Structure formats: structure tokens, C-alpha cells
Amino acid sequence: MPDLDSFSALLSGRHSTRAFLSTPVADELLRDLLLLARRAPSGANLQPGSVIAVRGEVRRSLCADLVTSWRAGLQEREDYDYFPRPMPMVLRRRQVASAQALYGALGVDRDDREGRDAQFERNFRFFDAPVALIVTIDREFGCGGYMDLGMMLYGLMLAARARGLASCAIGAMASFPGLIRRHLQLDERSSIVCGMALGYADPDAPVNRTRTARCDPDEYFRILG
Ligand SMILES: Cc1cc2nc3c(=O)[nH]c(=O)nc-3n(C[C@H](O)[C@H](O)[C@H](O)COP(=O)(O)O)c2cc1C
Known about the structure:
It is built from seven helices and four strands; from the N terminus they run ααβαααβαβαβ. By secondary structure, it is α+β, with helices and mostly antiparallel strands. Strands 1-2-4-3 form a four-stranded antiparallel β-sheet, with helices on both faces. The protein is globular, with a radius of gyration of 18 Å. Bound molecules: flavin mononucleotide. Flavin mononucleotide binds next to strand 3. Residues 15-16, 18, 98, 123, 168-172, 194, 212 line the site of flavin mononucleotide.
């Protein structure tokens, strides 16, 4: 039987990490983590989605273009809707709390636009993590496929953590799907879901002290009957 205590520690000890050491991650280890993550269940075992590691010149020019586009305020139509529009107040409060946790850890003030922008821009450089991943899904998939893919991504985060690595999903990447498709030579059928930064956490980086809370169980859990 798996040890529940160590699994619980794995779940509760995972946090999004946004600053990394330059220590490389071996290809072999990355492959192992992806294979483990692919053990995730999926409807009819369709195993939707794919993960592309970008490196070298591809990564350099992708990040340069992402940063340039973001700085210029360019906007693309995203491949899928993430947040509800309009955002209900109860969710807005959670969103604000997570931003406060992040910028609080960084010591960036609420009104410090430059400080916030500088942190946001780091999304488009995968937070300088040694491993930069782009996650895609076939455009024909509906919500179920995204659900399956999410399970796979969480498995990847947890497997990474079990091997001493840290990660952060990067939904911000979904803002520039066309640009990413061009750099990665993907056709229109590939929807851009998110990015992911993976590597060994920088223990001294203030941003990695970000800690988020969770809502009360009463807000999402009921027992009927
Ligand atoms: C699909 C997904 C997309 C995310 N996108 C971003 C992002 O673009 N930038 C970022 O800094 N954090 C991003 N995050 C991290 C969330 O902000 C973080 O998971 C949340 O605040 C809870 O904190 P925790 O992961 O430390 O528990 C993303 C997380 C998920 C699951």
C-alpha cells in the first residue's frame, strides 16, 4: 500500500514556483516524469494533449517575441475561455487574494504598476526555468479533454515534486496562441492550453515564499441526504 502520509505531504507541500536555480534537468528525468504523468486517467483512455519542451534557439526566439508582443500590448484571440466573464465577486476575491500573496511575497505594492508588470513579464520567459514546456490539445476536444489534460498536468507537478523539482503552470501563454503556433510549427488544430516552468526551486528567491490559501470546504462541498 502506498504511504498516505507521504502522499499527503506531497500534495500539501506543492506550491507554484517562480524562480529557479540554473541546475539543468536531465532529459531522462524529464521523460520519466512525463511517462508517470501520462498514467493519469482519461475518458475512453483518449489521453488528450501533448507537451512540447522548447529549448535553445526555439526557446530564445519564442520568449523574445512573447515579451515584445506583451510589451506592445498586442492581443490575440485565445483558443479557449478560461475565466468566467464577468467574474462573480466570490471568485474575484479569490483572484485578488492570490495576487496579493504573490506581490506581497515580492514586496511589490498594490499601486506599483512597474513592479507588477516586471513580474508578469517573467511568465513569458518561463520564469527562467531550465525546462520550458508548452501544453497543447487538439482543437476538437471539449471540456472533458481539458479535464483529462489537467489531471495529467497535476500528475506531472506531483511527480516532479517527488523528485525534488518544482513547477508553475503558465496560463499567460494562452494569450498568444498564434505566435506560439508559428514558433513551434504547429497547425491550427493545436490549441495552446498553457505553459509550464519546471526545475529546481531557488530557495532564496522571495517570490518562492508565495503561499496561497484555499476556500472553506462549505464553499465547494456538501453532503446531501
Ligand atoms: C492552469 C494554470 C495556469 C496558471 N497560470 C499562471 C500564470 O500564468 N502565471 C503565474 O504566475 N501563475 C500561474 N498559475 C499558478 C496559480 O496562480 C497558482 O496555482 C494558484 O495561485 C495557487 O497557488 P499554488 O499553486 O502555490 O498552490 C497557474 C496555475 C494553473 C493551474
